[in-house]
Design brief:
The structure holds 2 protein chains of 2 kinds.
Chain A (H helix, E strand, L loop, with lengths): L3 E6 L8 H12 L7 E2 L7 E2 L3 E10 L2 E10 L8 H4 L5 E3 L6 E3 L9 H5 L6 E3 L4 E3 L5 H4 L12 H5 L5 E5 L6 H8 L16 E3 L10 H8 L21
Parallel strand pairs in A: 1-11
Antiparallel strand pairs in A: 1-10, 2-3, 4-5, 6-7, 8-9
Chain B lengths: L4 H26 L6 H23 L19 H24 L4 H27 L10 H26 L4 H27 L7 H5 L6 E5 L7 H5 L6 H22 L4 H21 L14
Helix pairs in contact in B: 1-2, 1-4, 1-5, 1-10, 2-3, 3-4, 4-5, 5-6, 5-10, 6-9, 9-10
Classes of the chains: A alpha+beta, B mainly alpha.
Chain lengths: ~240, ~300
């Protein structure tokens, strides 16, 4: 069984919101659109987005890290939003595990959004239906696109490549390898939702350099073992 | 959670209607003196009025009320779907019960229809309560006390309504109906009080640490992805001050429980009006006290 999902590398995400804007652009003009924008140029603009990037500060100054955290539907393997839907508008596709909303069946009762612990479903105030990430189902199978472009628009937009897309049930896939080898984890495991999307944790990036390694290489006279020259630039830069 | 007035009216109105049906049928079975058919016809009319108003209110909760019929489709998995089937079924049973009395079809038929109606009333209590009790992520709701409270609060207000109705139609029944209403109100005070205590001491299952998967004791949100608010900042927060919420609890305790306990024996009409107003406040608080885990993602705007 295929389960398509995203794997998001928090060590790489720079919080640029390119995935947010590309998601909005594709989905507002695609089969899932148009996504409402209310009061877009006023004091309190609001609207529906399938994907948002949030920012958290971890630690106490000065030992803090800024973590940018992209949040979209996790396409759970046991989605709590699906069985509660009274009309069957909310469903999980058997063939690829994508959780979708049929806008023609949705009555806008909001019940699915109560059942989701992650708050990734957003009610469209104009169309009066529940909307959510479709994993760009209208482009990942589009054979008129070049094969390498058949990916969710957020994945294509990400400048540092923090977003991976693939089948998490295929142990050989890029996403499964990343989850396995880089400590991929799921959000709120205690909720019992078994999310398909995974996140890759932050990592410490360090490199150890001894003085003589740099000194020797940079020594214009190539004299090994020469005493350290105080006038040379610092060689203990953190990388 | 944001209390939605259509849902507050729906659950309180149909609760009173269901309780009134149980009270009417109890009168038919247990009344020592024969009652006029008009008593049951009028009672059924009130039940249909209350449940009809509740049904009407429920449509205001929907983005697409014209598609409401679709909500009957997923009864295999969804308690909301089951409620959508159970409510018209209960109304049908109440209508048939009133009609059987009006047409004087005999006690065999009225009692059979009464049993069906009571079963439907209890089924509807369970369906309505399970809509909330089945939402596992809301620990305040996901507990058997939710079912107990919906059933007892609806029954208590229904018997108070029955006592008020009897004061106009069958004065001999005021005292026994008021006694049952008193008893049910007292018991529901205990059960609702228990859920208030339970919910005040709940430990959330999820933390900000598990929500974003970073194991550090100090995490502060700096941005939530939008500054003008979103569906997430509107639907899951009650939007009132902590002081306002604090005044709601004593208000509904007095209006739903203390006032009816004091008044139901003497002025049942006033007791019902106060109890109904109190139950609206109780239902408002029921939503407001439920803390959704998604709120952890919405704790700060840069």
């Amino acid at each position: 069984m295929t389960q398509l999902a995203l794997v998001i590398d928090l060590n790489v995400c720079v919080g640029c919101h390119a995935c947010v804007t590309n998601c909005k652009q594709w989905n507002t003009s695609g089969a899932a659109g148009s996504l409402v924008d209310q009061n877009p140029y006023g004091l309190n603009p609001t609207g529906t987005f399938f994907n948002r990037v949030q920012t958290f500060e971890v630690g106490t100054f000065p030992n803090t890290e800024t973590v940018h955290f992209p949040k979209s539907c996790l396409h759970c393997e046991d989605p709590p939003c699906v069985p509660v839907c009274p009309t069957g508008a909310s469903y999980k596709r058997k063939e690829d595990g994508i959780v979708l909303v049929d806008y023609d069946k949705c009555i806008g009762c909001l019940y699915c959004s109560w059942a989701c612990p992650y708050g990734v479903r957003e009610f469209d105030e104009e169309r009066k239906v529940m909307t959510k990430c479709t994993l760009c189902v209208d482009r990942i199978y589009d054979e008129s696109l070049p094969e390498d472009r058949r990916k969710p628009s957020c994945v294509l937009a990400c400048p540092p490549g923090a977003r991976l897309f693939g089948d998490v049930h295929d142990p050989q896939s890029e996403v499964s390898t990343a989850i396995r080898e880089r400590g991929g984890y799921a959000l709120m495991p205690e909720a019992g939702t078994n999310p398909s999307n995974h996140y890759l944790p932050r990592r410490k990036t360090t490199i150890t350099i001894r003085d003589d390694e740099l000194y020797s290489a940079d020594n214009p006279h190539k004299i090994d073992g020469a005493p350290f020259d105080q006038n040379m630039p610092s060689i203990t830069e953190e990388l | 959670m944001r209390p939605n007035f259509s849902v507050l009216f729906l659950t309180t109105l149909i609760g009173a209607a269901q309780g009134l049906f149980i009270a009417l049928f109890a009168c038919e079975l247990l009344s020592p003196t024969a009652l006029e058919a008009n008593f049951f016809v009028g009672g059924s009319a009130i039940i249909l009025l209350f449940s009809g108003l509740g049904l009407l209110a429920s449509f205001f909760h929907l983005g697409h009320p014209e598609r409401a019929w679709r909500a009957m489709m997923m009864w295999r998995t969804s308690w909301l779907s089951r409620e959508v089937i159970a409510l018209p079924a209960f109304m049908g049973a109440a209508f048939a019960y009133g009609a059987a009395h009006y047409l004087a079809m005999g006690s065999n038929i009225t009692i059979a229809l009464g049993v069906v109606g009571v079963v439907m009333a209890i089924t509807l209590f369970v369906c309505t309560a399970m809509i909330y009790a089945a939402v596992k992520v809301l620990k305040e709701w996901a507990h058997p006390l939710t079912i107990v409270n919906f059933t007892l609060l609806g029954s208590a207000s229904g018997f108070t309504l029955a006592a008020a109705y009897a004061s106009a139609m069958a004065p001999a029944l005021i005292t026994p109906l008021a006694q049952v209403a008193f008893f049910l109100t007292a018991v529901s005070l205990v059960t609702r009080g228990s859920s208030l205590l339970r919910n005040a001491n709940l430990t959330p299952a999820s933390t900000l640490q598990s929500a974003i998967g970073i194991k550090h004791p100090r995490i502060v949100q700096k941005s939530q992805g939008a500054m003008g608010g979103s569906y997430n900042t509107r639907e899951y927060f009650h939007g009132k001050s902590a002081e306002f919420v604090k005044t709601i609890v004593p208000s509904f305790l007095v209006l739903s429980f203390i006032a009816p306990l004091l008044l139901v024996m003497s002025v049942p009409v006033l007791a019902f009006i106060l109890q109904y107003a109190g139950l609206l406040a109780e239902r408002w608080y029921f939503f407001a006290e439920a803390k959704h885990p998604q709120n952890m993602y919405y704790q700060g705007v840069a």
